[in-house]
Amino acid sequence: METMRNLKDSPQAASNAPILEMRGISKSFGAVKALSDVSFSVAPGEIHALVGENGAGKSTLMKVLSGVYPHGSYGGSIVYDGEERRFRDINDSEALGIIIIHQELALIPLMSIAENIFLGNAPARFGVIDRSAVHTRAKALLAKVGLSEAPDTLVTNIGVGKQQLVEIAKALSKEVRLLILDEPTASLNEQDSAALLALLKEFRTQGITSILISHKLNEIKDVADKITVLRDGRTVATLDCHAGEVEEDDIIRKMVDRDLESRYPKRTPDIGDVILKVTDWSAYHPQHSDRQMVKNVAFELRKGEIVGIAGLMGAGRTEFAMSLFGKSYGRNISGSVEINGKPVDVSTVDRAIAAGLAYVTEDRKHLGLLLAEDVRKNVSLANLPGVAERGLIDDMRELSVANDYRARMRIRSHNVYQETGKLSGGNQQKVVLSKWLFTDPHVLILDEPTRGIDVGAKYEIYSIINELAASGKGVVFISSEMPELIGMCDRIVVMHEGAFVGEVAGEQATQENIMRAIMRHKRRPE
Amino acid sequence: MSEQTTAAPAPGRAAGFIKDNLREYGMLLSLLAIVIFFQVVTGGTLLRPLNLTNLVLQNSYIVIMALGMLLVIITGHIDLSVGSVAGFVGALAAVMIVRWQLPFVPAAIACLIIGGLIGAAQGYWVAYFKIPSFIVTLAGMLVFKGLMIAVLGGASVGPFPPTFQKLSSGFIPEALTQTGGLYLTSLILGLVVAAIIVYSNFTSRARHLKHGVETEPQSLFIAKNVLAFAIIGYLAYLIASHRGMPNVLIIMAALIAFYAFVTNRTIVGRQVYAVGGNEKAAKLSGIKTERLTFFTFVNMGVLAALAGLIFAARLNTATPKAGLGFELDVIAACFIGGASAYGGVGRVGGAVIGAFIMGVMNNGMSIVGIGIDYQQVIKGLVLLGAVCIDVYNQRR
Predict the structure, then answer these.
(1) Residues of chain B by 3-state class (helix, strand, coil), percent to 5
(2) Whole-prediction pTM value?
(3) Model ipTM?
(4) Residue B221 near chain A (CB below 8 Å)
(5) Chain-chain contact of B207 with A369 (C-beta, under 8 angstroms)
(6) DSSP code of A415?
(7) Which pLDDT tens digit goes with each residue over A134-170?
(8) Of A431, A452, A491, B220, whose CB neighbour count within 10 A is largest?
(9) What is A271-356+441-526's CATH number, 1.10.10.10, 3.40.50.720, 3.40.50.300, 3.30.365.10?
């Protein structure tokens, strides 16, 4: 309803035929509905912002638009430039001037700026690249985006902000008409962000339409003509920035409003003494030793407590957890850790495990599992001495341990001899959890434990987490899905740019005040 | 699902089990097929006692190096330097024993330690500096080939004293009286080993059944053990009717048993597989991945040194050409034996069978009179074919 009203209020939508109209777009991954009946309309020459939480469906919608998900794999229709389009792949959409710039830049670091700009469509004669044409055209494009670098500078030698601009120059080389930017300013500093946004405004005067995905609402308010809010794969509202003042709080409310009652198993917290105490914890980037990724963090966790860590992507949550767990991330790590009141050594992974820490990684396929090995060998991996006698593995004891966890965690597999690579995401996660439970930790750090898992399996994982807390363990719960943190945690700390910037008690936690804590910090100049 | 398998009709079970475990049985069956083929083509020469003993002697150093190479390959690496290292250590042994008149035992120990140090030097770059093992050991291959020639001064050094030659051309002493041309001690030893293998198979099966673990069907199990006992017994009989067991066969068998045990049963063995399967996950599970990789190279160096000693003893001289191309046979043995070039997969039994497949083919083709040119072509094709079949089976 809101959508209708806002659209009617907009004078532009009435006067201009939209350059892009996505009608009733639906897209499912297995049983998970990522998009349901999304409608999205962009007028020519406008900057249209797309906002929503992580997982709201923004990136999926853009992948549908650009042909990453080909026609036929989604429902609904795309009308671009007055005609219905059925893109088979990204080349089809690029041919019509729809260019998407992803959050992770797709530049090749050891090639020059010019080579990157013309990668795949260099001016050539008989297959031989015309180097002088490349050079002059690259120079012209760089001037357009406000870069004065020589075209033969290697991409690795320029900063992230300039790399972003090179990406845009690359888009311009393909004669872009609709430019899609996915969180372009997420890794940029204030100055670079401002330059980029100014560039978008200039493009608007040249008739280039832009779709901007961002979490930074203050920036969006600055440049956008319209704002579409997505939530849970649905369009919630389209706001017109020229039809009166748009309040950030209003946007946030629209982004997060949702019923949280039945998605999380009930639990009565029984909170005891301090089990983990981290003081003045710092870590630096492994390659750029001057970038402090974790900034003097102090953290306390009690027995039976579930503490969430909220934050945007790149806030330093995983970096904090991994640096704590045997210095698995970063360098020049400093700070002290106490478990049950005693200082412990967590300088290597095996010492951290011995001290009673366990870390469930956010990337279970690459960092968590031996995918080619069976459930049994994965469960015992972090505690082989627990199934061995004087260095010799007792295969029957290992088997009974694995069977035990398979039953307790309700891992759905043929038996414990099944390869973990052939299990579903939820069951893989249960195998990873089993592995860490078998080390009998005091503290479990769960990094995005429900990522890529369907709703039913999520509920099971939540129940397991509640049981762990009930058995007196301390749980640190890192997640990008705020409802999940609010539904599960006794306390939520908010992390931003490597520092803890706020804390919200579980019963008072709402997505609005968490989001506000982040945004407030964002606006404050450093 | 386990119920389904047990509920399947009895006659089909054995066949089904073989089909499911084709990879394990396939290699053994192909070795058997190759042996039978050459036994027929050579008119029975292949399995004559003299030739069988030669086959063991000719392949012992390849098998020994394949044991070390298997671990290196399981961790996801490769060692191209083993041939040069074996040749270099053989040359060192010749200098120490022939020129300097050092006794056999201290010289051999020194050689093994040097092998370990060479492995450590290469493993250090691979494990801690993350330099691709292909490059490090390619460099090592050149370095030690050069050092070997330098140590020998470009000429062969020999002959060795008889004690050293015994390492590869000696036979175990005959404790019992020799009757009817049979070396009884060797025969009995062979039968005892066969009996131990069968016995341990039975106890392990009993343990599995007690814990309700699905095992192979009884008929198949018994057939397999009868066959294993018969084959080992027959080979022991053949060897006993020539000159008895070569010393090197005892060394080789002991090493095979040791490495099979380490890879299957120990924590260290399991961790080696984990490093190759997913190094990052292994590291985040508390496994000291760098140290483990380092020690697989040290181990490889020691085994290459041992192989170098055996080879020098067999030729009775150290020549500047010793060890040339060994690395190719060793690596081929591992891959034919089912090891994966991506790491994490491979078995000791497979590598040994792979080495003997290569060995039997070498030997058989030589007897038949195929020239060295086409021998190489055929061996190359067999390697490619074996790995292709393996990859195909994995994809199914």
Answers:
(1) 75, 0, 20
(2) 0.79
(3) 0.86
(4) no
(5) no
(6) S
(7) 888 899 889 888 888 889 889 888 877 788 889 888 8
(8) A431
(9) 3.40.50.300
